[in-house]
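Need tokens for this chain, all 270 residues.
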Amino acid sequence: MSHTAHIPSHRKPRRNASKTALRAGVAGGVLSTIAVAAAAGPAQAEPVTQTIEMPTLTSGLSTAVAASAEATQQVALDLETQAHEDAAATTAAKAAKTAKAEAVRKAEAKKKAEAAAKAKAEAALRASRSEARTTLSATSGSTSVASSSSSATGSAASVVSFVKAQVGDAYVSGGTGPNSWDCSGLVQAAFRSVGVDLPRVSQAQSTAGTQVSLSNLQPGDILYWGGAGSAYHVGVYVGGGQFVGAQNPSTGVVLRSLDYDPPSGAVRVL
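Here are the structure tokens for all 270 residues:
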């Protein structure tokens, strides 16, 4: 026995002849098929279908989407709130406009009513003056002629002297002297100079003494314009058909004829 008999052989085993022939036949058939296909022309390419795998949402993306939805909802709420505020502002503006129009209407109505009342008062005053002129004319042609022979004496003379001394002073509503007066302030001061305390306002002064006829005036009598108890102006008769009165801001204290502005009546205090 050889000394190498126990060592395995390193040669490759021989291939089975039948297997080798089969493989050669298959390879030849495939090559033939490819050759025939190539000769026949290019093959129709089949469509390739590719499957794309979609990524899975991560937790961070979910949080971002949730935050975006919350922000969108907040914007919607803000827009709704703004819409309510705008509607309220519009309603308030309309209400203010309506109120203003109503106030203007009432002011115009009040102005018209005041104008009507003033016109009525002026008409009544003109009627009163017309009546006074008629009375004056009926007594010897005029009051100045009927009373021109009268002369002031005693306290009446002092009252006449006082008011004449103020002629030229300014007229100031509420004025009580010594250099500015209103009508009743001048009359009150004149009678106070002889110790007679008269009421402050013309309405009360027109009823402070005995009512006398305009045809029987004496110096020192108080003349009034308007009704007794509701007179709006007073003055002092100084004789000779004249009176002194604090008329208005444009004329001040003046000496005027009764024909200039005939009074409505007179009262005698002295």
